Amino acid sequence: MNYKVNIDGFEGQDIEVKTSFWSGPKLFVNGQLAPKGNKRGEVLLRSDDGRQVVARWKSRFMGFDVSQLVVDGKVINFAEPLKWYQWVWGGLPIALVFVGGALGAIAGIVGFTINAKVFRSEMNSVLKYVVSGIVSVLTVVAYFVAAVLFTMLIH
Residue 33: left (phi > 0), alpha (psi -120 to 50), or beta? Predict the structure, then answer.
């Protein structure tokens, strides 16, 4: 997902965060990937007054929720964190980990990731839960289809 970010002192710049499940968040300034800092998880920014500023990523909920950006000691939230009940409802596919081994884990994580994106979308609140429920059911169906196909392949 892409998020526009407004940071004090950087008003003249187009700052955007792109998140990905596979590679983590990336910070873009005026369409260019921000240069890496000296430490892991740090990026370098140039403020409107010409100062070089270090920004770093701060993970939330053990890295499962969208990270925060810390710029000059100020925490920048660019995405609303999921509520506990959204974690529970959207995380139902994770139960496949307990019944489906590695294949269940893959299906559950993919289902949960899609559900998290649904909850962060702009659709109606009730519709979010309906769509998330459908995604959870489809995740279970996809897991069973994949498990049957896998079983047929090895026999």
Answer: beta
Please measure the distance between the N-terminal and C-terminal CA atoms of the chain and give it in whole angstroms: 41
In terms of C-beta distances under 8 Å and separation of at least 24 residues, what long-range contacts does 46-49 make, across chains too? Answer: 47/9, 47/10, 48/9, 48/10, 48/11, 48/12, 48/13, 49/9
> What is the mean predicted confidence (pLDDT) over 19-39?
82
Specify the residue for token string 């081994």. 101
Residues in the chain: 155
**DSSP 8-state class, residue 36:** B
| Interatomic CA distance for residues 7 and 51, integer angstroms | 14
pLDDT for 136-146, tens place per residue? 999 999 999 99
Please state, in angstroms and rounded to a whole number, the distance separating the CA atoms of residues 140 and 74. 41
- Each residue of 50-84: pLDDT tens digit? 889 888 888 776 545 677 888 888 888 877 788 88
Place of tokens 């964190």: 81
